[in-house]
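Chapter summary example.
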Amino acid sequence: MFGKVLVFADFLLNYADKKFVAAIDETKIELAPTHYIGDDGDERIVDLVFKCPLKSGDGSLMAVIIFEHESRSLKKIPHKLLKYIVAIWVAEMKEGKPLSAPYFIVLRTGKKPHRGKLPKVSDSLPKGSDGKPLGKLVEIEYDVVDLPAWNFNKLVGGAVLRSVLGMLHKMTGGNIDDFPEALKPLLEIADEGQRIELRKELWDFVDKVFKAHNRPLDVAKINEAIKTAFPGKEETMIKSVFDEKVDEGIARGEVKAGRNMVLKALRKKFKKIPKKIEQSVLAMSDPIALESLLEHVFDSNTLDEFATVL
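The structure predicted for these 310 residues follows.
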């Protein structure tokens, strides 16, 4: 959900440093690439980076959300943030861009709130006789937002965030049948277009949680939820929700059939196929590519020739 700029902007306005929020143009926020943070782009990045242009037009702030789930300690965070901003600056210098100012938010969902001082880079460095860290260093400042998972009723601000966490709370910790009530904060979003923009993500989220509880996506429950969040639009919106599910089902069926046809043709022509080729075919999810691959089965004289195409 945080991958949507609308959700991120909603979160910033309610939880971020007010000085930071006042300096940026929230209408121009966009997702920034994260591949340069990893070593040669091969490190999996689970956090999010957003480019937030300044209202003054004199540059941008790079806002990074660090997700810390069930964390007992934040001691590794300063080193992680130092690595992030250096990687971002290196990429900007290579591209000849002005350097962005960093703004780090650690989004923490621990069972208990964070207590005490926030860890620093210097905490893990050697100390002199005076107890102060040796050497010269730049400290990384960051904010910590504790989402009070230990007491959901204390969650304030952020209509989108309260809706999403409210659904999760109702469907996992509370009564799963009461989840439509969790969507009421969406009515606080004045722009109906923005509310509708969130619809698909919300229903996908609901669908996944229902499946986790071994329950089907219930038409009646979805209808009730739509009435709650989108009064007067339930007839057209309920149709679009389930039409999308049908389309997804058809697409999955086409992919499965395409894989089976390719494997069947391979076995018929070459008798036995290597496990690696079978796994590669089964990993494919594009029905058009599978159709093209089927033609290559007939055109290939050997498995090696087919493997080259694959």
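To summarize the output: The chain has eleven helices and five strands.
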